[in-house]
Amino acid sequence: MEEEVFIENTKWVISRLEVQDMTNAGESDQDIHFMLNSKTMRVSGFSGCNTFMGTYKLEDGNRISFSELGSTRMACPDSKIDEAAILSVFETADNFRITNNTLELNKAKMTPLAIFKKSEMHDNPITEKYWKLKILGGKEVKMADNQEREIYFMLKTNESQVTGFAGCNQITGAYTLEDGNRIRFSNMGITLKACPDVVVDESQFLKVFELADNYTITDDVLSLNVAKRAPLAVFEAIYFD
Length: 241
Known about the structure:
This protein is mainly beta. The chain has helices at residues 83-92, 202-211; strands spanning 11-17, 20-21, 33-37, 42-46, 51-59, 63-66, 70-71, 95-99, 102-106, 114-119, 130-136, 139-140, 152-156, 161-165, 170-178, 182-190, 214-218, 221-225, 233-238. The longest helix has 10 residues, at 83-92. It is elongated.
């Protein structure tokens, strides 16, 4: 008996956009895809150049609706993907159908707007780990006595989301992984708490995410790098019981 497949908490990779074959539209972590998180009721995905996010609602009879989607604003002049057409699928769809490992997003009873295939979600050694900052700009980082907590970040798989702490403020953003240990951060934001007594340069930490385009991991040590230069920052994986 075949295992039942649910639309939520599954990575869906596009295979057809209306009549256009999209099988080879992306590779590995750059597949055009989306996921629905049943805990947060949020949709997140990758549309060919940018990541997108929003909320969704499920109703009886395989009915589904999506909020207006937000998207990063990366420029990809060499991309042949019509991202607007992909995002339009979510704006238009009002129902879905799952057959085996294939998902159709539809409008009424018309021809499917898009068809997706279920993808296995492989763990990546950089995701879902607590990365504590050890070295920044070539200098060892020491936690100030009155600092609330250590500087760190995490990459959340389901939301393609960055979370962390910069010394005084919380940070959030989005990320995209690519072949060859390449990484891109986008929409990085920070809370606006004032910590006049904490000596920490948060802007230097945020600059790491602005510049980094690749990473290396050796055992539990992570380096965020730009090109082949010396690491922008070095982190250590911390595990909690």
